[in-house]
Amino acid sequence: MIKSAAENAAKKAVKQKVEETVEEAVTDAISQPGEKEGSSTEAAAMRAQKLATLNLETDTVDVPNLNFGSSFASTVYVRNTLKKKPKVVVPGYRVVFALESTGYAGTNSGGVDAVRGAAAHGAVFAAGRGNARATGLLGKMATSGGGSPKRLFKKAVLDGISTQELQQIADQAYLHFLQELEACGYDYVPIEEIAESAAFKELELTQAGPGAPYVQPGDDNSRSTYAVFSPMGLPLWFTHYDKTLGVGDKGPFEQKNWKALNALSVNTNAVILVPQICINFARIEDAPIYQIPLASGYLDFDIGVHLDPRVTSLSAYSAKAKIAGNLGAATLRKPLFLPYEFGVVEKIDEKSYRPITGVSMYGSWSVDSVQEIYVVTVQPEVFEALALTAAKAANLAFLESLR
User: Fold this and answer.
1) CB of 396 within 8 A of CB of 183?
2) Best CA proximity match to 149, nearest among 172, 130, 164, 166
3) Long-range Cβ pairs for the range 211-219 (8 Å, 24+)
4) 174 touches 90 (CB < 8 A)
5) CB 294 within 8 A of CB 150
6) What angle separates helix 2-31 from helix 112-120, to the nearest 10 degrees?
7) Is the model's pLDDT at 144 over the cut of 90?
8) Beta bridge mates, 25
9) CA geometry: angle at 371 spanning 368 and 375, to 5°?
10) Where are the alpha helices (DSSP H) in 121-232?
């Protein structure tokens, strides 16, 4: 028994030491600055030259046809809910922009706990056998490192557009929605009629404002950092249900806003509709995680303005009593890309390292890993035109549910 206890203590000490080594290796890999390709002056000149050539004739960009019935999931709930009330009210409208998009792939190599510990320190790993590749509407990007990295992490960051310009897109998208809502002839309650109501004032607002959006950092589920904008003059708020639709600041038991919407639905005899449109600039799909030996796999991302299906949705709330009601949402099934160039892609960072990813009583092992970071610098006018076009497509699809 004494020998067994000593062995257990030794194993525990080895495991703790390995976990500490993993943390140190990952922290070092993340904190050390990467080598940038070319001088900053040369890169800036080439970037400016490329951006100057992007001149999109907005009149030639048609709004894509996005069918509500086939392009969205759970549409039956929304349509059935709309049949229960003679009119609608839209107390919230959100335009969400992805500021960062990430993806990863790789093996767990038996060291699951070590990998999770590393991920918790900001190192999201990825890869497949062979060179990882990144292709998109702006052309094929550099292959990832030399040889065969077993883990690869890719991040794309949006640059070249201000929060004020993103706010303008949200304002214009909302104006288009209201114009089309009025044109479709469906009875609706204007926001001015409910703004002073007790139910509307009960809504717990999110700390945000014009040009100062609510920002939700990326996590293991979304892989993206999102900035949520509400149109000028319309407050930003979330219910407990919104977190399941990609963004939100309420937990599952924070139901105050849901009850306020129920009261608003009862008082106005209307269905509450909340459109949520997400504009992304880079879609990175995680590659499957394989056990060793690795199967063939790649980590791709597409650079292009598109509607993000992870966040784009139309929520509907309806209630007969203030204490409870129905809620649900139709969600976009797949991304809708607009095939136009809108910016310049540059790799600004690449690191290769071998963090320890597994441990046993016989020792530990490490895996070749690569981390890449890209910046997508947009031409503001082109990006604004494409983002607004995508938002209009979503608006028209949402309003199709009323017909």
Assistant:
1) no
2) 130
3) 211/163, 211/164, 211/167, 212/163, 213/97, 213/163, 213/166, 213/167, 214/247, 214/249, 215/99, 216/247, 216/248, 216/249, 218/100, 218/101, 218/102
4) no
5) yes
6) 40
7) no
8) none
9) 160
10) 163-183, 191-194, 198-201
Position 133 pLDDT exceeds 80:
no
Cα 105 vs. chain centroid, distance in angstroms?
A: 18
Count of CB atoms situated within 10 Å of the CB of 294:
17
DSSP states of 209-254 as a string? BTTB-EEE---TTT-EEEEEE--TTS--B--TTGGGGT--S--TT-
| C-beta separation of 30 from 360 below 8 A | no
Is residue 382 within 8 A of residue 339, CB to CB? The reply is: no
Q: Which of 53, 64, 283 is nearest to 158 (CA)?
A: 283
What are the DSSP E strand ranges found in 296-362? 301-307, 313-321, 324-332, 336-337, 343-353, 356-360
> Residues 212, 214, 219, 221: is their CA dihedral positive or negative?
negative
Quote the tokens at residue 173. 């998208």
246 CB burial (10 A radius; 0-12, 13-18, 19+): buried
Q: Among all chains, which residue has been given the structure tokens 């999931």? A: 73
Question: pLDDT (tens digit, 9 = 90+) per residue, 261-300?
Answer: 999 999 999 999 999 999 999 988 766 554 333 333 456 6
CA distance 389 to 112: 43
Residue 92: which of 259, 216, 242 has the closest Cα?
Answer: 242
Contact 86, 187 (CB under 8 A): yes
Interval 137-161 mean pLDDT: 61
Cut 0.90: pTM above it:
no
Matching residue, tokens 């497949």: 128
For 249, left (φ over 0), alpha (ψ -120 to 50), or beta?
Answer: alpha
Pairing of strands 224-229, 270-284: unpaired
Alpha carbon separation from 400 to 164, 268, 308, 345, 384 (Å, rounded):
30, 22, 19, 36, 24
Give the single-character DSSP code of 60: G
Check if the beta carbon of residue 274 is closer than 8 Å to that of residue 107. no
Pairing of strands 270-284, 289-290: unpaired
End-to-end CA distance of the chain: 76
